[in-house]
Predict the structure.
Amino acid sequence: MAVEHAGCFEMEEKMARKKIIAGNWKMNKTPSEAVALVEELKDLVKNDEVAVVYCVPAIDIVPVVEAVKGTNVEVGAENMYFEESGAYTGEISAAMLVDAGVKYVILGHSERRDYFKEDDCLLNKKVKKAFEAGLTPILCCGESLEQRELGVTMDWIRLQIKSDLSGITADQVKAMVIAYEPIWAIGTGKTATADQAQEVCKGIRDCIAEMYDAATADAVRIQYGGSMNAGNAAELLSKPDIDGGLIGGASLKPDFGKIVNA
Ligand code: PEP
């Protein structure tokens, strides 16, 4: 009975968190291709119960913001720099994103951590700056296959979360999104099982409860990302601690609409 009651309580908390399905387009789509994709997906992603976000390459932001006007879709960036302005050739500031109509920003994607050597110290500065500017961070974390096999998945992810959120307030955490993305599942076609994904997403929520409090842990939205597709989305999204998905490959196809409505 007590277990049944606990289950109901978990479901109520989950329902209070609006699901968020975000596409990470990565380095795909020229501006004109981006506008065509928005048009192609427009009717497929209609769903007011879910927050739908397209995180697009920097050069696509302005045309995509224009193209999604009047739809349920919001626009995110895939990265930003933490400095206000100045001599940082090639970088884009939080204020520039906000001025262009961007609402979300992916921070700490494993591709940026790996190829561009972004560390937790830098990411902590980026998270702070995103909040200061009024952007909602989608903070990514996740383990490598080697770390999973060594049994240090949760130790690693707790380290990432604690470092990246250092100095971030409970109210800010309540408003943000954390994406659990096992590196071995990104772009590989290998998805974490729904139970594996749930276990880590619950571990992240427990870590937030320890760092802040139960109300903050109940409010923060935690996505799963890693080869999510139209076939596996419903099972992953049915888990009590998975509040949405960060989707790479499948966000560029009509399949994205099926995930939004899974
Ligand atoms: C991602 O890059 O965030 C991602 C989840 O990619 P994919 O869905 O292609 O695995």
